[in-house]
Design brief:
mainly alpha, 136 residues, single chain, 8 helices, 70% helix
């Protein structure tokens, strides 16, 4: 249920943080960890978050999300914003969900503008840019 979901978000955020610090590849980091949730779920969530990362980061900056919700780590915030806007909606309850929900309207309003901007960038990239394929 909800506590499993918050575990999943925290695990995914931890992997993102380690990737940022160049502590390993996505695959090696996920496989070397023991999670309370399935590795497949953590891997999928991290992949999806990375896919939308440029858009998510810009949304977080524009909305000053981290400044307003200082209890959220940048990576946890990223994962939560992904699920809110591109995933199945935030699956956990409690303070994490409340923190993101306070900005839900603003984030959803800003999304099309930022997506449009990134679309133009995406179109100018060579085709066949990074695709994440699950090793499972």
């Amino acid at each position: 249920g909800r506590s499993m979901a918050s575990r999943l978000y925290k695990d995914a955020a931890e992997i993102l943080s380690r990737m940022e610090k160049k502590q390993g590849s996505l695959k090696s980091l996920v496989f070397s960890q023991t999670f309370s949730v399935s590795k497949k779920k953590v891997y999928a969530l991290v992949c999806q978050t990375l896919k939308y990362k440029p858009i998510i980061v810009e949304l977080m900056d524009s909305s000053q999300l981290l400044h307003k919700e200082s209890q959220l780590s940048p990576f946890l915030c990223m994962v939560l914003v992904y699920d809110l806007l591109f995933g199945k909606g935030i699956q956990c309850g409690g303070p994490m969900k409340q923190a993101i929900n306070r900005h839900k309207v603003e984030l959803k309003r800003m999304l099309p503008v930022i997506e449009k901007k990134h679309e133009t960038v995406a179109q100018s990239l060579p085709s066949g840019t990074i695709q994440y394929v699950s090793p499972f």
